[in-house]
UniProtKB/TrEMBL annotation:
It comes from the Bacteria. The chain crosses the membrane at residues 20-37, 80-98, 105-125, 131-148, 169-190, 196-216, 378-400, 412-434, 441-459. It comes from Cupriavidus necator (Alcaligenes eutrophus). This is Glycosyltransferase RgtA/B/C/D-like domain-containing protein. The keyword Transmembrane applies. Keywords: Membrane, Transmembrane, Transmembrane helix.
Length: 475
């Protein structure tokens, strides 16, 4: 469909040449980049930097990202280059998703609004694996939509590559991928599979197999391509769970080799545990702390953890319920959960000449005051953001006058992914950090942009190469 047809289908917006659209997209992304430069970083980036300089040691952080940082720092020190890859990659794929549904001028306006949403703006300031992961997930959604539209083997391959990259960046990407992948599989399975429950069961089995393959491929690549040792990040959650159950029972359930000096009294655990994070149990100023290391006996810890959960399910569920409430911000309405506005100070102090500097932007300071000191900041809390996403999806799904059902489907993928990732991370993670919500923030921000765009047009968008609803649904 050419630009004239697009303009005729939506007379409110004049056609914008493709080059002008993408030029305008790059301009607004450059402005966001300059506002956040050199980006917000954490201690994780310090470990990534060390491995990039000294060789990959473990897979606690993505070996793929470590290789990227190694290449980037060989060109320019600091975070500027990795940050540009994360920000521009995420922003360009978001612009591509919006362009699928709306004419160029409206798509650009919606992109600007999307980027200025407080929860999204703070997410785009991160120089962490979380923003890289979010960018990979936007690419996954875009490839899903194109595959469903065209049923092309190429787009199937692109979707598989995007999913694999997302899982290699963060293993918990499988939580975010599952909803969209399940719908795609359900749509492409033969309609003759009756009843629908049989078709859904087949899709679930295929989805589970693909998820296992993605995780296995990641492990193989980490071991034999990047030569990274296993880090066993699940240790933290197991130590966290065992400590919480021990405190409730007033009985030590942790293996002796996981207690410093072989003895950490339950009273010490009780005085130091935080329902929102395991850090205070592992990093302590004295001899009482829990042992978290890659070469420990992981099997013994896993057995102790499984026994504790099997014998004391009520205590486990109570602990996880408390943590989940804090992870989504219901019981943890603290400023730091609303967004990160400054990088790790130790890196700023140690490596200022290497490009690790403080974010110093009046725009960022304005957003920080808005989010952390005014009632409006509540919308950036995870629970409020998830509710906003559900509202945006429902506006589309209810068929608001002339709302395109393909936009509703895309919003459903985005919101479903955000919900699944948030609640499953709340069940397995051990730190209620704002950056863990980077993908849900961006996913729901896109869903909100789709809803607003549909309300503004009040007509089915018909951009060049746009999505065909009947093809998406498999009808």
């Amino acid at each position: 469909m050419n630009n004239e047809t697009v303009a005729a289908a939506n007379p409110r917006g004049a056609a914008m040449p493709a080059k002008a659209y993408w030029g305008a997209v790059l301009l607004v992304l450059a402005l966001v980049y300059s506002a956040w430069y050199p980006g917000v970083f954490t201690l994780d980036e310090l470990d990534i930097l060390r491995q990039a300089a000294g060789g990959i040691a473990h897979d606690g952080h993505s070996p793929l990202l470590i290789s990227l940082w190694s290449l980037a720092t060989s060109i320019h020190s600091g975070s500027a280059l990795p940050y540009s890859v994360a920000l521009f990659g995420t922003g360009l794929f978001a612009a591509a998703v919006l362009r699928m549904f709306f004419h160029a001028a409206l798509a650009w306006i919606l992109l600007v609004g999307f980027l200025l949403l407080p929860a999204v703006f703070t997410a785009f300031g991160l120089v962490t694996k979380d923003l890289f992961f979010a960018g990979a997930m936007v690419a996954v959604v875009y490839c899903f939509l194109r595959f469903l539209q065209r049923r092309s083997g190429w787009w199937c391959a692109f979707a598989l590559v995007a999913m694999q990259l997302a899982v290699m960046i963060r293993i918990d990407a499988v939580f975010a991928i599952a909803p969209g992948l399940l719908f795609c599989l359900f749509a492409v399975l033969p309609a003759r599979l009756r009843p629908a429950l049989l078709r859904l069961t087949a899709a679930l089995i295929c989805c589970a197999v693909l998820v296992v393959v993605l995780m296995a491929n990641t492990r193989l690549a980490n071991r034999f391509v990047f030569h990274a040792k296993p880090y066993h990040a699940e240790q933290v959650s197991m130590l966290f769970d065992l400590s919480a159950i021990s405190i409730q029972l007033n009985r030590q359930l942790l293996p002796t080799d996981r207690q410093s000096n072989g003895n950490v009294p339950v009273e010490v655990l009780r005085s130091r545990i935080s329902p929102a994070s395991a850090d205070s149990l592992i990093w302590s100023p004295d001899q009482y702390h829990l042992v978290y290391q890659t070469d420990a006996d992981h099997d013994a810890l896993a057995r102790a953890w499984a026994r504790a959960i099997g014998a004391h399910p009520a205590e486990y569920l109570r602990h996880r319920g408390e943590y989940l409430a804090r992870y989504v911000g219901i019981r943890n309405d603290s400023p730091w959960l609303r967004g990160h506005f400054q990088g790790d100070e130790s890196m700023v102090d140690k490596y200022p000449t290497d490009g690790w500097n403080r974010v110093d932007s009046p725009v960022v300071r304005l957003f920080e005051r808005l989010i952390q000191t005014t009632p409006a900041g509540i919308i950036t809390l995870p629970w409020a953001w998830l509710l906003l996403g559900l509202l945006a999806w429902q506006v589309l799904a209810w068929g608001w006058p002339n709302t395109p059902d393909d936009a509703a489907l895309c919003a459903g993928m985005l919101v479903g992914s955000a919900l699944t990732h948030t609640f499953l991370m709340g069940l397995v993670s051990a730190a209620a950090l704002a950056r863990y919500h980077t993908w849900p923030r961006i996913a729901i921000g896109l869903a909100v942009a789709l809803a607003i765009g549909s309300l503004l047009t009040r007509a089915k968008p018909a951009p060049a190469g746009g999505v065909n609803a009947s093809k998406l649904s498999g009808q």
